[in-house]
Amino acid sequence: MSLPVSPKGLDLFSLLPAVYRMRDMQLAQSLPLLTGQEQATLAQLRLLTLPGMPPLAPDQQALLNELNAKASRGPLQSLLLVLQEQVGIVANDLDQLYDDQFIETCAPWVIPYIGDLIGYQPVNGIAPTIDNPRSEVANTIAFRRRKGTVLVMEELAGDATGWGAHAVEFFRVLADTQYMNHLRPGNHYAPDLRKWKAGLYIDTGFDRTAHKLDVRRVGAAISSSPREQGRYNIQNLGIFLWSLSAWSITESSATSAASAPGCYRFSSLGMDLPLFHKAVPPGFEPDDTNINDPAKPFNVADRLRRRVLCDDIQRGVGAHYYGEANSLVVSVNGTALDPYQISVCDLAGPEGAWANTPVAAPYAAAIDPELGRLALPPPPAGTPEPSVSVSYEYGFNADLGGGEYARETGANGFLVTDPAWVVPFPDTELIPRYPNLQGAIQFAIAELAENGLVAVEIAGSGIYSPSGPLTIDLPSGTTLEVRAAEGARPTLLLDGEIAITGDSSSTAVLNGLLIAAAPATVPDAPALIALVHAPELKADGSYSRLSQLSLTHCTLLPGWSVTPSGDPVFPDPPTLVAEPSGLQVTVARSIVGAVRCSRTAAFTATDSILDSASPTGVAYAAPDAATTGPSGGALTLVGCTVIGKIHATLFSLISDSILWSWLTPADDAKLWPASVLTDRRQAGCVRFSYLPTGAITPRRYQCVEKAPNNPQPLFFALRYGRPGYCKLLASTSDRIRRGADDGGEMGVFHFLLNPQREADLRVRMQEYLPVGMEFGLIYQN
Questions:
Q1: Of the four listed, 323, 380, 717, 747, which is most buried by Cβ atoms within 10 Å?
Q2: This prediction's pTM
Q3: CA–CA separation, 425 vs 427, rounded Å?
Q4: Quick check: 295 and 272 in contact, CB under 8 A?
Q5: 488-514 confidence digits (pLDDT tens)
Q6: Is there a contact between 499 and 514 (Cβ–Cβ < 8 Å)?
Q7: Using an 8 Å Cβ cutoff, are 514 and 492 in contact?
Q8: Do residues 233 and 215 make contact, with C-beta atoms less than 8 angstroms apart?
């Protein structure tokens, strides 16, 4: 054990006259300073240091040094070491007393006192940029020097929420008579219609068109009607927020539009998808933008508009949006197209009749970022169809349903961390060990005999189309993880189901995959009952004893596949069927379609979406209602949004969730007396959730039921693929938007804690708002 030393490494014993030190050493040699057990231990350790013996372990070496020192230390030296220890403690306390004067070096207990001294207001600290109280107090000291400036308020808005933010002083864009000492030459009463940007950004955070006076309050509650919130007035300050973000897809194959040669879509599912651009942090722009300038359109993640991209590619290598390290790249036959080879145009139109498709050079490709479409000129006669890959950004609200975001760490991280037990697909060996994904799975199952935990890792964000069903049959006590590699989101287009069986105590895990049906698949095909199917019987007729089936960061496409407009092709068939008795199905941070679970199995979902593609569809029930009854197994939902009807034997727990469904006149009143019901009402609990009219549930606590005088959730969109999929509008009533158990919003995005971020922002804005001004929060997406 190391002892603290006096200041400047002072050794008190060395300051004594030599005669006293020599007498103390002689006294140490004549007295037995070690106990019998310590002497025996010292002798054994000294034997281990003889030549030819292996080196001592670190703890053995430390013990040997301590015993040698104790055996040679006299009474006077021991006394002075005790005194020296106390002197060192006093010296360290004096040093810490000086360090406590500064926020960078002070002890943790001092941080609240320094914060109170400068008037720091504590916040929830949800956003990563403000989750450290020390850095927050330090930033407050720096911000105080610029208090009241619009740039500080803009920076605070971004830090407090973690979203894109832009602050606007509305009096600067008022159409009024200007003061002669402060002229604004660019603030014309009527906009210059020859400049397209004036019209493109009108009524957004980057609108610089002069407006007439608006006498409504800018600080009206967000949950009220947007029409009640004013903007343009002398005392008004607007904080524009971009809560959606951009998520990347890298080198994915463009999907060919079958009805039109040379026409492609960016989406791996073959649907129109608005492209986004990622945010470029201030100070990292390729041009001469000052870090202290207000945010510009490329500093926030937003939809990529045609005119904006057309203007951007004319910069060439200086483009903000197009380029290898930017938001959009198109490669043909493995070669990325130069910005000057790209034509941006409107490719709208029905299948086979897209407008403005190129017919010849000089452009190598035409792009429509608002529809996510791509068109190439017709190749010369006899030339094979080119290979087209795309890298792009799409808009969404969270790390959910699979993506190139980080999944390796965290609560839902990878199970297999040893690379020796990771089977890569495609195979990386010089001599291939397996030709396809089914072969990789069989190879991994064979490896389970040596190690009970093996993973199949799919590389890249490409499209994989297995031929026939994928079968997984696990030995007893083993775990197989089929996952996307870190930084990848592969798409599996199936023409047969993924059938998972196993013996007792076996576990199957799917992680980071986007799973859909191939476009040519029909729902009555015998090879496809569901996208993922855990059957009751194995191929040999014996019962499956699979213990656990987990889906993490996965998407089982609602409706199996989608039309070019994004509508589900087959909304009725389930995407997940779980039949074995005792099977535990867990779904986390995933998007799944309709689920069918047997009465003897259990289903648990957290932070996920269950979407039957319609509020009148069946989101959760039994696999075969005609023979086993309509109710599925015990159901647990925490922080979920469910679109469709639910019938379960037991609601073990439903918390912080939104159940969005209703009945139709065609529903059988005996099978569906309510759109959400459970057979057992004396067990389980439903809390802090939104329920449809007449829901039959166990005991409730702080729930909101759909009724004429009650609020209801307001969604941006209920179709998969839309950027605002299952996202609540800011105008949703606070009984829902702040109705979760921790004051957050109900539903799948509860874990983002958006209302708490908004509350943090309001606290921060009140600290820095100029006297006499009022601010309002305005969501841009």
A1: 747
A2: 0.86
A3: 5
A4: no
A5: 999 999 988 999 999 999 999 999 999
A6: no
A7: yes
A8: yes
